[in-house]
Backbone:
């Protein structure tokens, strides 16, 4: 690691606040009633329900979406036994990946205990808290005992990612490589450099996929693992000992089809790969320095397919391609474990995804890399948004089919659609706000042009994000969709002349309508009097069925009358605000208005004084947007062209 990267990493971990994770509420907690529901006396109802039926803990608590990342710090990355406290940044990093890629909540738990049995006892006692356990950076051979003991004692998934996450991604990469070189898995000969937890797990999974044990030779620091080797006492290694005269890695490379390196940098020398079989598959996964650098290997063997653990080379073998998604699928069916059927389902789904054309979002993330299935693209990229919807469902199905699921998913396609909502970052509050919405809520984009809607991926309004859910508003059933916000995309004339907002000759722009997902949603409507018919249609088809509290900024009498017909609490926000009823003040969560209709900024400030949590000021064409937040002392102006681009 260079000094520059070292210093940047320390700054990244320290600022703007220490660490990489935090805990955010998923429920409203703004008034007396909220407090009585969240805690005493209302919390007793949830407690009693769980006491009567323990499985309902998945319904009334975070347990069904909560994973523990647990380590004792005895085998951390390339750092070794650095202890539990020093391992905490790694565990926090793992937690971030779970959340980013699969929407799973995580507590990282670092335990000061090296005795395997005591560690098992401690972890097993945590079962009431979590839906799954991810074991991390625990040294071999203790990790084997710990995982097996916990799997027997606990009724939730226990997964040692260093073993099984690696093995799943390696297996998928090997399956695809064998297809490219037209070799059968039962015929190939595999050698390893390394016989630790990850290597053993890879070998065991490959055998389940059809590779023959007799075609494998393993090596460790002492050389080839063979019958009769002095001081070979590890039972996991003894299980793979072979009868051979070979004693070193160099002795076994001749005619090998696959090299699997999970050891140390530069141990695979140039002369060793010369005699490998035609079209060799070289997985040099040591970090940060591979067993052999790809550029050196390609000079000697241009016919080789090469993968590493590094992001600066093609074919990165990264566990993040697996662990978020296998846990997602497991927890969503309440699986009591993660069995071979689920692992194999994940392997095949991951391998198959690499055969599909990568979407534009992946090309943008990896602009200089080949993303067509071939020798430089045998495995998907970590930032491929399809991973969640492509891997979690087959894992869930495998759990159900193998009998370890405690609940079922009846409609897999609907399940995939709900997973799409987790691909983007959480739908959060606006910039500088500390409030966030519950994971799984969605923003719906209503469009009368499906093709245009499909062109839109992420709509970034400071920290606000839109999920990939697009519907024609005529067919939209909001009662089933249960969104927490709506983006209405209507043909509204005379709104903007900016090319970044207008995707077609006919004028179009975004209008935003936000509400809270509770029994009575609160819509805040921005109305354009120049397209009255369109808004009337929107009001009657979308707003009216919910009977919401509506705030509009329009002074158009006809539109205001129609809004009041939908709900008697509708008010004109551009009129004097001192007459607003107190009960209605508390229901307003967000106001969006337009500079040509709002009287003054003082009206906006008055709304804050009345208890408004946050507001956006929408400027007229050519002006800017003003974002007001109750949590900051000053207003902030954002250029509209930097907020929304198509």
Residues:
């Amino acid at each position: 690691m260079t000094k520059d990267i070292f210093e940047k990493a320390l700054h990244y971990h320290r600022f703007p606040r220490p660490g990489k994770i935090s805990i955010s509420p998923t429920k409203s907690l703004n008034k007396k009633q909220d407090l009585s529901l969240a805690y005493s006396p209302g919390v007793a109802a949830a407690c009693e329900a769980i006491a009567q039926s323990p499985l309902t803990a998945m319904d009334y608590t975070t347990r069904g979406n909560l994973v523990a990342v647990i380590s004792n710090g005895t085998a951390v990355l390339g750092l070794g036994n650095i202890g539990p406290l020093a391992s905490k940044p790694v565990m926090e990093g793992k937690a971030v990946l779970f959340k980013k890629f699969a929407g799973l909540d995580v507590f990282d738990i670092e335990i000061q205990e090296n005795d395997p049995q005591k560690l098992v006892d401690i972890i097993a006692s945590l079962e009431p808290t979590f839906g799954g356990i991810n074991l991390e950076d625990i040294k071999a051979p203790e990790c084997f005992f710990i995982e097996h003991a916990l799997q027997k004692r606990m009724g939730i998934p226990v997964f040692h990612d260093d073993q099984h996450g690696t093995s799943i991604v390696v297996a998928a990469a090997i399956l695809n490589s064998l297809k490219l070189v037209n070799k059968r898995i039962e015929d190939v000969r595999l050698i390893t450099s390394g016989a630790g937890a990850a290597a053993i797990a890879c070998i065991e999974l490959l055998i389940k996929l059809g590779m023959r044990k007799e075609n494998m030779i393993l090596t460790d620091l002492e050389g080839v693992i063979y019958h009769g080797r002095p001081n070979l006492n590890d039972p996991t290694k003894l299980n793979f000992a072979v009868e051979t005269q070979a004693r070193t890695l160099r002795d076994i490379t001749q005619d090998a089809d696959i090299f699997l390196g999970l050891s140390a940098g530069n141990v695979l020398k140039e002369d060793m790969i010369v005699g490998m079989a035609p079209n060799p598959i070289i997985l040099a996964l040591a970090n940060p320095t591979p067993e052999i650098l790809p550029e050196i290997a390609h000079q000697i063997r241009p016919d080789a397919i090469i993968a590493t653990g590094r992001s600066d080379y093609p074919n990165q073998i990264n566990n993040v391609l697996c662990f978020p998604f296998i846990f997602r699928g497991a927890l969503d069916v309440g699986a009591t474990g993660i069995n071979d059927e689920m692992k194999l389902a994940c392997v095949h789904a991951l391998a198959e995804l690499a055969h599909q054309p990568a979407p534009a979002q992946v090309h943008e993330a990896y602009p200089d890399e080949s993303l067509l299935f071939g020798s430089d693209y045998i495995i998907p990229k970590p930032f491929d948004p399809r991973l969640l919807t492509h891997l979690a469902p087959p894992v869930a199905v495998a759990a159900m089919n193998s009998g370890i699921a405690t609940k079922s998913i009846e409609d897999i396609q609907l399940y995939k659609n709900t997973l799409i909502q987790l691909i983007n970052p959480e739908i959060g509050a606006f910039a500088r706000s500390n409030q966030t919405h519950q994971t799984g809520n969605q923003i719906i984009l209503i469009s009368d042009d499906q093709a245009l809607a499909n062109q839109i991926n992420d709509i970034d309004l400071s920290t606000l994000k839109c999920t990939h859910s697009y519907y024609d508003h005529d067919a939209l059933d909001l009662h089933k969709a249960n969104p927490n916000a709506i983006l209405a995309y209507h043909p509204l004339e005379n709104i903007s002349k900016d090319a970044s907002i207008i995707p077609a000759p006919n004028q179009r722009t975004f209008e935003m309508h936000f509400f809270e997902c509770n029994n009575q949603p609160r819509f805040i409507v921005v109305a354009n009097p120049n397209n009255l018919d369109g808004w009337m249609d929107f009001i009657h088809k979308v707003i009216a069925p919910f009977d919401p509290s509506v705030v509009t900024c329009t002074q158009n009498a006809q539109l205001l009358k129609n809004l009041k017909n939908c709900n008697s609490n509708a008010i004109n926000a551009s009129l004097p605000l001192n007459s607003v009823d107190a009960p209605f003040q508390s229901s307003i969560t967000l106001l969006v208005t337009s500079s040509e209709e709002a009287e003054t900024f003082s009206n906006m400030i008055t709304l804050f004084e009345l208890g408004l949590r946050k507001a956006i000021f929408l400027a007229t064409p050519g002006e800017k947007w003003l974002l007001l937040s109750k949590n900051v002392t000053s207003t902030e102006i954002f250029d509209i062209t930097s907020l929304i681009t198509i």
